Amino acid sequence: MKTLIGLPAYNESPCIGKLLDRINDVRDEFKLPLEVIVINDGSTDDTEEYLKQYSNDYSYISYIDHDGNKGLAQGMRTIIDYALSHLEDEDVLVVMDADNTHNPNIIPTMINKLKKNHLDIVIASRFKYGGEEKGLKLKRRILSKGASIFANIFFGVKNVKDYSCGYRAYDIEFLRKLKDFYKDKLIEAKGFECMIELIIKAGKSGGRIEESPLVLEYNLKESPSKMKVVKTINGYLKLGVKYNRLRKVK
Questions:
Q1: 122-146 as b/e, with b when 16 or more CB fall inside 10 Å?
Q2: Fewest C-beta in 10 Å: which of 74, 107, 108, 201?
């Protein structure tokens, strides 16, 4: 079994190297067969220079350049397409934020839970017992908690409290079935709401989803937030309007 870590990155030069160092430490400590793919989403800072250096120094790290900034949704599409074309059904895709706020030390726990409990997705959750948000401003706390309440009311996916966190482990066989069913419409959202969309579609398709506690280390973030609050809220509302039209995977 192999694990691919997918990192969508846009202007993350202050922290991408620190995160890759932490991932390398986890790889060495736990002897994990890891590969890393970074999606450089049209960064205009020194992100690509760091990626060139790390991909030269570590054979298991590579990156893909987007021609211009296409946003998180397209970054996720690129990661999923890459994973499905490079991994076998028994493998795992782990997606994390590239800003060093997601601690890679919990990856082995997430993978173990995914495989031991025969799950399709494990979400690193701030709202699971043992989870926490460090350094997050009140406005972002309200948005993340509000998104969770909104999603639970409208979608009610079993065992899910943290719909918007992008730190997740995906079973490749299940992800392949989702992609085969939805095809190019697996991710239709334009922005950060794509993470909620994926969980909705996985839940509607009978996905077995559980959460693992996450201590969000926003206090370590050194790059500006890319999230546009009003735009993201509008995206959530649009999902609420169309959620009941989703069909189940047969």
A1: bbbbbbbeebebeebeeebeebbbe
A2: 108
CA 90-3-51 angle, to 5 degrees, is: 150
As a whole number of angstroms, the distance between CA 86 and CA 20 comes to: 21
> Which CATH number does the domain housing residue 66 bear?
3.90.550.10
Write the DSSP string, 25-69. HHHHHHT--EEEEEEE-S--SSHHHHHHHHHHH-TTEEEEE-SS-
Is residue 250 in a domain? no
CA–CA distance, 47 with 52 (Å, rounded to integer):
9
Q: Provide the strand spans (E) within the chain.
A: 3-9, 34-40, 61-65, 92-95, 121-125, 132-134, 168-171, 209-213, 215-217
Tally the residues of the chain: 250
By residue range, what is the domain housing residue 153? 3-245
Chain segment 38-72, per-residue pLDDT in tens: 999 999 999 999 999 999 999 999 999 999 999 99
What's the chain's Rg over C-alpha atoms?
A: 17
CA torsion 17-78-197-23 (nearest 10°) is -30
What is the spatial distance between Cα 160 and Cα 233, in angstroms, rounded to a whole number? 19
Across the chain, how many H-helices and E-strands are there? Answer: 8, 9
When comparing pLDDT for 100 and 224, which is higher? 100
Helix (H) or strand (E) segment spanning residue 235: helix 229-242
In a domain, 66, yes or no: yes
